[in-house]
Design brief:
The complex is a heteropentamer of chains A (about 1050), B (about 180), C (about 120), D (about 300) and E (about 230). Chain B has about 180 residues and is α+β, with helices and mostly antiparallel strands. Chain B has five helices and five strands. Chain B has a single domain, classed as 2-Layer Sandwich (Beta Polymerase, domain 2). Classes of the chains: A mainly alpha (about 1050), B alpha+beta (about 180), C mainly alpha (about 120), D mainly alpha (about 300), E alpha/beta (about 230).
């Protein structure tokens, strides 16, 4: 191993030597600088590798040949090795990023750059507090010098404010150091920690001054206005250094010095960190400038890391892992994002759509954003998970709430930004700067992020290692994205099939999982099938579609809570990208993501309250949570966001309606079942029979009933076919929730039957309507009409779909209704039951509107030549129809095993539903799907024959051959009765669908925006007020502490 | 009433004043004065209501008479305003902007008499006579009997009498 | 005579100067004055450092004829704070220089040294 | 029992029901006429109308769904008949009620409605669609009190099997649901008014404003099929209410008498009251009858 | 229809705008030529539906005669005489007469008084939309020979030149008793098997159409209104 002191030597030496170069030698100087930076990278990485996998003693460098306290010593332990490696990585790639800039700036800038990194390295390694101060100052000076590369008043004034603030802070630090020396007689950190048992009165003030200065260096909220200005105005390459580099070093300083303060200061750090995390992210909500936004985000993330350090007592042995996860995500993503900002060349976040011109950049951007929020498989996901688990284990519930709140705020602005990048209209005249020297660092960091993800996953305790197969396949799909669509689609379908085949033996005996796995996999294959009709290569579709399916299957496959949550987040991520692909999906996808993120955070919270630090995280833990009431409520609400229960439903209609034709069935027919599956898992854990009489269930039952009513009622008044179906999904998920809330054997059978049916008919309907929409290029039903003649196959599909939806015998929808009645009467929930039934009759209204307005009535001129929907849409539809027919005629094939499963002792031991051949019996009634089908079929054929016999010569007429009071119809448009079809109904019951939920969420949104807008006014831009903030901050912290 | 008439006579050259009954007066004004007069009546004299517009074909004088019947619901007075225009394609100014329903009267007059009302909405569309291609049927030079006989397959065997002579014969056979 | 020791005096003076400097940074509007205030602040820290390293009745930590090498430990004041002060002075000079550079550039850009005028970045 | 015999009896039952439906319609119209001091139609006029419609020579069709609409409609009516036990404790006249219970019948009513709606929809006539939209809208509200009543009696008798419900009402008039659960009966009988399509709930077909609504385009044989269905449906729905609330029937005579009075109830109300608009009838139905229905459940639960 | 999606070809200005051929832009941006008279209406020529022979036809005719469903279409002043017909005093129901609001379900159309050319067009449409067999009762002298409007430029004189008439009821106006008598006459006619006006109309369609087109100048409908 190379002695780490050579890092200083080389960097300092190179700095001095470079001074000899003239302007003409700038090219050589740049190469020399790069080489000089490569050396510390080599050294620190070497040390890092040295420490990996073995418990080697830290290597200590003693300067001046003596031991402390008489000399300064540097230490190279595992922590230092890792951090210097990270910093030098940043230094190396940051240098590449600035390569062209250096040419115009001259040698002095390179020297500053080298000095900065020397400073940062020493800050990490040194164990001497005064030395620390000196190098902090050196690094600051170098950095402020670097800020000057951006000309203009903004950078200048920001740099000056930064300078003043840093000077004041370091003055305080110096005073503190002086007093520490005075009281303890040593400047060596280790030495001080050893003797701080003799804490004196004055010492605590000294420690206070030192630590508060360090905290302020870390830009504690709200005394951080000076840093934000620099983030915003400095060259993005420099901002990246501040955000990732100096912050890293400062964090380690805090970590080194925090033991000074003892336990008290750990708590203080935790509070300060979390306040910073939440506060800064909240103010970020109102921010529109990309670099400043990154500044807010940086401050917030650093706050979170500070808090993690503050929690180090609670986290124990997990500290390093958590810190690693959160830190590396922040480090790589934030540097990468600043670099991307330089490449995009746009200040306004809405203009980042320019990235779309280089899909690779967009991909990297997305990776960074997802990793910042903590989505799998990025390291922060693991970190956040473990952090939350450990905190709950120590009863720090409030802290968890704050962390999740801050994450939510972060999600609000980051996803708005990502959405803009993916979907906002793009200025054609601009293009991102994709010079090689800029692409290399960003790309390298993205790859490092993937590597770090792999590392996190590989070394995370309890990570589900088997599930990496889908992730590799998704990666593979990214790599083959340039191939034609047919290949990718076929591969995707085959992979789903293969996975199902592979999965089958393991869930064979678990009918419940089998049903959901069937929905996810078969549904996935069928909906992907429709993709063959797409033209072009459909870039970026398949990886995310498969990501969603991988998540869905992961849910089924998961045997522990971590795996479940991992899959849940994976699914959310994939589905978000799928949804945002729609033409007008920007806002809707954003809504979807916010609700999903909120839901996911609640689920995480719920899991944390369930597990509460215990090592066992298997799903069975849900049966005995540490905090049952809160855990169940949070989990339930979390799942309900996905099932779009009333109040949480406002994202659904837009997201489902504006998605692409074949994405709508994926997200509606299939994805919603994820929420249902979550509820199943949750309710099962709550215990069957009498044990399951949780008051929460009663509330959920009512919620389900109201959701059914609200969703269906809103569907009735839609003019947009897909929106109608989307609202119908809301209603149907209400039924499912209602049925599951029964917590009886038959109630669950109802719920599962509804789930299967909803999958079958909603996928069918969305595919059929999607095919129609594809042909007629409009969603408005009143613009269509008479399409039965052009699209007879689609018509049949919709007909079967709505008969199933409405629950009309003989099709399988009736099975659900029949079970439902039995369940309601057995349970005694009459009022709710009647409400749900009312909702069911309302479904007729929109069913009729859907099929009539689109397929019947008057044909419009514009659509006289439309063709039948693509055959790739028709085939899956008819496969689904066959499925419906089988399920209708022989429901016992599915229901019998489910019933057997549910009657296991753990669930609902009584078995009220008995099967005798094809007839189902309960103690209330009976029903025989097969006989009904037989009788109705025979009767129908006979009657049809009778009518055919009687009117065999009927003359086929055309659309205007109708009686019109002696007149002729004017135009098809004026004759097609469709727009606002249920106006009287609206007059009678329209008051029920007053958009309360929308207004509520708008209100929440506006409140937080207004709050952020007014709160961020404290960053007045005046350098002096920033100093006042600093002073006031010190005073306030001091007062609180004493 | 009298003052009103005085004002009209003084201001709008009304002549030929004919008091039919209480509160109902007909008079004639020259064509250019019609619109100002009607405007005045509507705006200042309270004649809010256009009861009807009609036309008479004075083929002997080679002119059409157009009659506007206005009503003041407050004073319960009706004014019949007559004016004369030439029969040969001379149009009349439209008053559809004062009363929307005037357009319908004007459309009918255009169809039945061929009197043009430039600017009146839908004035050229058929009103009662869909696809009429002859001269306007209410013009007196149009021989309706001849047209009917030529067009509508008269049932043979119908006896027709001149009402005047026939009734005279019937009622006063001795005269 | 029981006067307070010189070290307390200088420490007190240092703290007063520190506060004065801070007040100056916060209160003065002119950038040059702010920089001067910072210098005051900086100096006050040096004073504080020196005063906390002072030991009564001892001499400067210079080993020469007056103080022999052997009894230096009992006769001189703690040399470390003075060494620290030396370093701090150097750094202070560096920072002040940088500040002045900034002041010059700011003046060139905008023609004013009022710190209130440099508020283009905020929120 | 053998399938052939069963089918034979089912067809016989259908024949009886159809004829009774036609005659009942005639009798009731005769009664109405006499009440308004008219001689009125012949009792057999419905037969003549039916024969007339089946003997119309020319037909025209707007498309496949237009053709299938009446088939669906008649299937709905006949289907309810097929799944309905007619006579108490009679294996012969229980039809195919072994295939499903009350819920099946309640939902099978939608089958015909939906088919009719689609058939009329393909006719392309706006009045059809207007009528259907009104009908469906009103129907949602009509079904709510009925549902509450069904829930109430299902809970009361702890069964959903119609035969079982009838069996439980045997043994004297006071055992009828009418007396054991009067509130449910009231709620259901108000629903019945709506289901029969007489005033005040007949805005669907209101000839004065919306010429007869859905079947505007139907004629000849199609109309004949619809009329056949109407005759069956009126009787069979009365049979349903008879079975649920009025003690069922132990022989055909009892069935005929009871259905007559049950059906007459709707006609009677229809003669007396004016017509609701849709936006009036829905709030009304959702207020008073629903309240009665809820009370009936509360009553049973206590 | 969105106006910018519709283009009218330059020729073809004689028809009313609704019935003109036009080019519409389809969803894929393709041009679609729409000829309303051909695309909206069935252009098939009707065929006579000949009666069956023997007892079946007699039975059917009896049913047709005993169930006369009248289209509620009042053409002239005579329609004021129809409502009393249904009142308790005259009670036409007892003869099997009932009103239907749609021609599809009606078998009788009553031309109740004078027919202007404009109304005639609607009558023809309604009549053709009724199903075979169908019957026409003409009320009042106006339908017989023009009545008091015999020399009007806009009122037809003889209805039987435009649609086949089964029964004329003379009078100006005939009272309800007379109309009842007319109904009975019609019944008798149907039972005798003479109520074949619908087939006559189709057999002589060209003659009827020529007469109709002679006076209906803007014939903007298909030749036969199914």
């Amino acid at each position: 191993m190379v002695n780490p002191v050579f890092i200083i030597v080389v960097l300092l030496g190179a700095g001095f030597l470079l001074g000899l170069f003239r302007k003409t030698g700038i090219s050589l100087a740049r190469v020399a600088g790069l080489l000089a930076l490569a050396f510390p990278l080599y050294v620190s990485v070497g040390w890092m590798l040295h420490f990996i996998g073995q418990t080697a003693q830290p290597y200590v460098v003693y300067t001046a040949g003596t031991v402390p306290p008489f000399s300064i010593n540097l230490r190279m332990g595992p922590d230092e090795a890792f951090l210097t490696a990270a910093i030098n990585m940043l230094g190396f790639f940051g240098f590449i990023y600035l390569f062209r800039l250096f040419k115009s700036q001259g040698v002095s800038t390179i020297i500053l750059y080298l000095v900065l990194f020397m400073g940062l390295n020493v800050i990490v390694m040194t164990r001497d507090i005064f030395n620390l101060f000196v190098f902090l100052e050196i690094a600051s000076i170098a950095l402020i010098g670097l800020v000057l590369v951006n000309k203009g008043i903004d950078a200048l004034s920001a740099g000056f404010k930064y300078l003043i603030a840093v000077s004041v802070i370091s003055s305080i630090l110096l005073v503190g150091i002086g007093f520490i020396y005075y009281y303890s007689g040593t400047l060596n950190i280790d030495g001080f920690i050893e003797n701080n048992s003799l804490v004196m009165k004055g010492l605590s003030t000294a420690v206070f001054l030192v630590l508060v200065a360090v905290v302020l260096e870390l830009k504690a909220f709200p005394a951080n206005g000076w840093a934000l200005d620099v983030y915003q105005s400095a060259h993005p390459g420099i901002s990246a250094l501040i955000s990732a580099g100096t912050a890293t070093a400062s964090l380690f300083v805090l970590y080194k010095l925090l033991p000074f303060g003892g336990h008290l200061w750990l708590q203080v750090a935790a509070v300060i960190g979390l306040v910073t995390f939440v506060g800064s992210n909240m103010l970020g909500i109102a921010q529109k400038n990309a670099n400043r936004l990154l500044g807010y985000s940086s401050v917030g993330q650093i706050g979170l890391l500070v808090a993690v350090i503050g929690f180090s007592d609670d986290l124990g042995s997990h500290l390093r892992m958590i810190f690693f996860g959160l830190f590396i995500s922040h480090f790589l993503s934030k540097a990468g994002l600043f670099w991307l900002s330089g490449m995009a060349g746009e200040e306004e976040i809405s203009k980042w759509s320019v990235l779309r011109k280089k899909p690779a950049l967009l991909l990297i951007f997305g990776m960074f954003v997802f990793s910042l929020i903590g989505f799998p498989p990025f390291p922060s996901f693991y970190g956040k998970w473990q952090l939350v688990m450990d905190l709950s284990g120590n009863g720090q519930i409030l802290w968890i709430a704050l962390i999740l709140l801050g994450t939510m705020f972060e999600g609000v602005y980051l996803f708005r930004w990502l959405g803009f990048a993916i979907k906002h209209e793009v200025d054609e005249s601009k293009a991102p700067d994709t010079a090689a020297e800029k692409m290399i660092p960003a790309g390298a960091f993205a790859l490092l992020l993937l590597g770090a993800s792999w590392v996190s996953n590989a070394y995370f305790p309890g990570a589900m290692k088997t599930s990496f197969l889908p992730l590799y396949f998704i990666l593979f799909l990214f790599l083959i994205d340039f191939l034609p669509l047919v290949i990718k689609n076929t591969l995707s379908i085959l992979s789903l099939g293969y996975y199902g085949w592979r999965l089958y033996p393991s869930i064979q005996d678990d009918t419940l999982r089998l049903v959901f796995a069937g929905i996810f996999l078969i549904g996935g294959m069928l909906t992907l099938f429709a993709g063959y009709s797409e033209k072009g290569k459909r870039p970026g579709f398949y990886p995310f579609a498969l990501m969603m399916y991988a998540g869905l299957i992961g849910l089924v496959e998961a045997d522990n809570l971590f795996g479940f949550f991992f899959a849940w987040e994976l699914m959310t991520m994939g589905s978000y990208i799928l949804i945002i692909r729609g033409k007008k999906s920007l806002v809707h996808a954003y809504n979807y993501m916010l609700f999903s993120l909120g839901g996911a955070l609640l689920i995480l919270f719920g899991i944390a309250l369930t597990v509460a630090g215990q090592p066992d995280i298997s799903l069975s833990m849900l049966a005995s949570p540490a905090y049952p009431g809160w855990a169940y409520a949070l989990l339930a609400v979390g799942f309900l966001t996905k099932t779009a229960a009333l109040g949480l439903h406002i994202w659904l209609p837009g997201a489902h309606a504006e998605a692409e034709s074949d994405v709508s069935p994926m997200v509606s027919g299939i994805l919603l079942k994820a929420g249902a599956f979550g509820l199943v898992i949750l309710f099962l854990a709550m215990g069957g029979g009498e044990a399951g009489r949780h008051p929460l269930l009663y509330a959920l039952g009512w919620l389900g009933a109201l959701t059914a009513l609200g969703g269906n009622l809103m569907a009735v008044f839609q003019e947009d076919a897909k929106r109608l179906l989307a609202y119908s999904s809301v209603g149907n998920l209400g039924y499912i929730l209602f049925a599951f809330s029964f917590m009886t054997h038959i109630g669950w059978l109802t719920g599962l039957t509804y789930s299967i049916n909803h999958f079958l008919f909603k996928t069918l309907l969305f595919l059929a309507i999607g095919g129609v929409v594809m042909r007629v290029k409009t969603h408005n039903m009143y613009e269509m009409g008479g399409l039965i003649k052009r699209m007879p196959w689609s018509f049949i599909a919709v007909l079967v779909g709505i008969i199933t939806l409405a629950g009309i015998p003989p099709l399988s929808g009736f099975a659900g209704k029949w079970l439902f009645y039995n369940a309601v009467i057995a349970k005694g929930w009459f009022l709710q039951g009647a409400l749900v039934f009312f909702a069911g009759t309302i479904a007729f209204l929109y069913c009729f509107k859907l099929i009539y307005s689109v397929f019947l009535g008057q044909e419009k001129d514009r659509f006289r030549k439309v063709k039948e929907a693509p055959v790739w849409y028709i085939i899956p539809q008819f496969i689904l129809i066959v499925g419906i027919m089988i399920f209708s005629a022989r429901p016992e094939i599915v229901l019998k095993p489910i019933g057997a499963l549910l009657s296991q002792a753990a669930f609902f031991p009584s078995e009220p539903l008995a099967w005798e051949n094809v007839t189902a019996y309960t103690n209330l009634g009976y029903w025989s799907g097969f006989n009904i089908m037989l009788v109705i079929g025979a009767m129908f054929v006979v009657l049809l024959g009778w009518l055919l016999l009687m009117s065999r010569k009927a003359q086929k007429v055309k659309q205007f051959n109708i009686v019109y009071a002696g007149e002729a119809p004017f135009t098809p448009e004026t004759t097609h009765f469709s727009h606002n079809m249920f106006a009287p109904y609206n007059k009678a019951l329209g008051f029920l669908i007053h958009p309360v939920a929308t207004q509520f969420w708008l209100g929440v949104n506006n409140t937080f925006h207004a709050l952020a807008e007014s709160a961020r006014k404290i960053y007045s831009g005046n350098g002096q007020s920033y100093i006042i903030h600093i002073v006031a901050y010190i005073v306030v912290v001091y007062l609180i502490l004493s | 009433m009298e003052q009103l008439l005085d004002r009209i006579i003084a201001g709008f050259e009304a002549a030929d004043i004919e008091k039919r009954k209480d509160g109902q007066v007909f008079f004639t004004v020259p064509k250019p004065k019609v619109l100002p007069l009607i405007n005045h009546l509507k705006m200042f004299e309270g004649f809010r209501n256009l009861i009807l517009m009609t036309a008479v074909d004075w083929i002997e004088d080679n002119q059409f008479q157009i009659t506007y019947l206005l009503n003041n619901p407050d004073t319960k007075t009706d004014l019949g305003i007559r004016t004369f225009i030439g029969r040969d394609g001379e149009g009349m100014d439209s008053i559809h902007e004062l009363w929307g329903h005037a357009a319908t009267f004007q459309r009918e007059m255009k169809e039945m008499f061929g009197i043009g009302f430039p600017g009146s909405p839908r004035v050229d569309e058929p009103f009662l006579l869909e696809g009429w291609d002859d001269i306007p049927p209410m013009r007196r030079e149009f021989d309706t009997k001849k047209y009917s006989e030529e067009t509508y397959f008269p049932r043979p065997g119908r006896e027709t009498h001149d009402p005047a002579t026939y009734m005279k014969q019937k009622l006063y056979p001795n005269d | 005579m029981n006067l307070p020791g010189i070290e307390y005096l200088s420490l007190g003076l240092g703290i007063v100067l520190f506060l004065a400097g801070l007040w100056g940074i916060i209160h003065q509007k002119n950038i040059i004055k702010i920089i001067i205030s910072f210098s005051v602040l900086d100096t006050s820290i040096h004073l504080i450092l020196v005063s906390i390293g002072y030991m009564r009745n001892r001499t400067a930590p210079i080993i020469d004829s007056a103080v022999s090498k052997t009894d230096a430990a009992s006769q001189v004041v703690d040399p470390l704070p003075q060494a620290l002060v030396l370093t701090a002075i150097v750094i202070g000079v560096g920072i002040t220089a940088l500040m002045l550079t900034y002041a010059l550039k700011l003046f060139n850009e905008k023609g004013t040294l009022e710190i209130d005028k440099f508020k283009s970045l905020k929120w | 029992m053998e399938l052939a015999t069963k089918t034979g009896f089912v067809l016989l039952g259908l024949f009886i029901i159809l004829n009774w439906g036609l005659i009942m319609a005639g009798i009731i119209r005769k009664i109405i006429a006499r009440a308004s001091m008219r001689r009125g139609i012949s009792v057999f006029q419905p037969y003549i109308n039916l024969i007339k419609n089946y003997s119309i020579r020319s037909q025209l069709t707007h498309g496949v769904m237009f053709y299938l609409g009446p088939v669906f409609r008649l299937s709905g009516g006949v289907g309810i008949f097929l799944f309905m036990p007619l006579i108490h404790d009679s294996e012969i006249w229980s039809n195919f009620s072994f295939a499903g219970d009350l819920i099946l019948i309640a939902y099978f009513m939608f089958f015909g409605m939906l088919g009719m709606a689609l058939g009329a929809g393909e006719g392309g006539h706006p009045y059809s669609a207007i009528g259907i939209s009104r009908g469906l809208a009103q129907f949602t509200a009509i079904e709510v009190p009925l549902t509450l009543a069904i829930l109430s009696i299902a809970f009361q008798y702890n069964t959903l099997s119609i035969s079982e419900i009838v069996a439980r009402q045997q043994g004297g008039i006071l055992n009828w649901t009418l007396f054991t659960n009067p509130l449910a009966t009231i709620a259901a009988m108000i629903s019945f008014l709506g289901a029969m399509g007489h005033a005040p709930f007949n805005v669907v077909m209101a000839p004065q404003e919306n010429p007869i609504g859905p079947p505007t385009e139907y004629h000849g044989t199609f109309l004949g099929v619809l009329q056949t269905n109407r005759a069956i449906l009126h009787v069979i729905e009365s049979v349903l209410f008879m079975n649920l609330f009025f003690g069922g029937a132990s022989n055909w005579f009892e069935l005929i008498v009871k259905t007559f009075f049950i059906y007459f109830w709707s006609v009677f109300v229809g003669m007396v009251f004016p017509r609701f608009r849709v936006d009036q009838s829905i709030p009304w139905l959702l207020k008073i009858p629903v309240l009665i229905g809820i009370l009936s459940i509360v009553f049973i639960l206590l | 229809m969105p106006e910018d999606n519709v283009k009218y070809p330059a020729e073809d200005q004689s028809l009313s705008p609704v019935n003109r051929k036009r080019v519409v832009i389809g969803p894929e941006g393709e041009d679609i030529l729409v000829d309303p008279l051909r695309d909206y209406y069935c252009t098939a020529r009707p065929e006579p539906e000949l009666p069956r022979q023997g007892i079946i036809e007699k039975f059917m005719n009896w049913a047709r005669a005993e169930s006369l469903w009248v289209l509620g279409f009042g053409t002239g002043c005579g329609s004021i005489e129809i409502p009393p017909l249904l009142s308790p005093r005259y009670d036409a129901y007892r003869f099997g007469v009932a009103m239907r609001p749609t021609p599809r379900q009606s078998s009788v159309i009553i031309i109740s008084g004078y027919l202007s050319v404009k109304t005639l067009k609607r009558v023809i449409r309604s009549y053709e939309q009724m199903q075979n067999p169908k019957f026409v009762i003409a009320l009042g002298s106006c339908t017989i020979n023009g009545g008091m409007y015999w020399d009007s430029y806009n009122t037809i004189n003889r209805l039987d030149h435009y649609i086949p008439v089964d029964v004329y009821i003379a009078g100006c106006m005939p009272r309800p008793e007379a109309i009842l008598a007319g109904f009975n006459k019609l019944k008798q006619r149907i039972k005798e098997g003479r109520g074949e006006g619908a087939n006559d109309y189709i057999k002589n369609l060209d003659w009827y159409k020529a007469n109709q087109k002679k006076i209906i100048k803007d014939w903007n409908m298909p030749d036969y209104n199914w």
